[in-house]
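Troubleshooting: if your tokenizer reports a length mismatch, compare your output against this known-good record of 376 residues.
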Amino acid sequence: MSRVKLGDVAFERKETLKNGNNQVTVGLEHLIPEEIELTQWDEGAENTFTKAFHKGDILFGRRRAYLKKAAVASLDGICSGDITVISANEEKISPRLLPFIIQNDAFFDFAVEKSAGSLSPRVKWQHLKEYEFELPDMGKQQELAELLWSMNATKMAYKKLLEKTDELVKSQFIEMFGDVVNNTRHWPECSLGDKAEIGSSKRIFAREYVASGVPFYRSKEIIELGKGLSPSVELYITKERYEEIRKKYGVPQVGDILMTAVGTIGKFWTVQSEQPFYYKDGNLVYIRPFNVNTTYFQSLLEMLIEDYKRDAANGSAYAALPIEKLKAMKIVDPPRLLQDQFERLLRQSDKSKFELEQSIVELTATYKKIISENLG
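Known-good structure output:
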């Protein structure tokens, strides 16, 4: 076991590739926080990227390192300038182990500490290469790599089961209510605005942002919440400003559904806590249902918005969903008894999902402990 610096066993790849419009392209948005394998990218999209990477390289998101984005490339391509491409010196470190040295809390903490900038901090390779860690001999490295990749495969299998559970819920919804877009069961109909209050927040100016106080969520934070992730909050407003808005206009309430309505359309999060926060106007709308089962209502919304997005992809709608258009959408209104029955089914599904999520949490904790004890 010896103590080394990252720059002793790995290097920054600095290859460039011009006219890469026909290449596989990776931006920061393709890197999923705390996931070690690259699973998303674009192909053939117009871009200005020139930084090349090769299969087996690690793509590290150097902008906002606290988002914990670093993944092993499974193919060749080009990437954003906000990604540092890190390659292993195979004579000194196992290429299969290096990803776990990069994708770990201690390294991200180091990267955050060395980052510079206010709203969009970045870290340079000249600082990253100074990160120190314990490195065992090559035999032990390979043994650790096999164990860690095996644990990662188990974690990803659990995540696949979570996805399958969500698909099952969708199937149950269709079985109970039919095609709600075309109303194949001939339920009574009304407009969305008849069943919910729909609106947006009051405008908050950049000069009102402060370093601490009441969290101010933007679309990306709401998307993270909708995925069950803790949001990476960067902006806040004062408690006094929050109270002023609460008294004059109202603030999000438990049971409100927040939905992204510009750019990325149809990402949802239901407010479940009375912990105060506020959110960005324009890109997000709040939907406050009444005289309807909230659980059923959100599932119904998801079905309607998916249909709307398909139309948008075919060019018949803009990448935005105005509030008035949302209010005017026709929806079905099945018996409340059936809505409540669907909620009970969903709760059973949520129980299974919770158990899977707990298994993922426990596996992740063990995985991190192994990294800390062997590569600290």
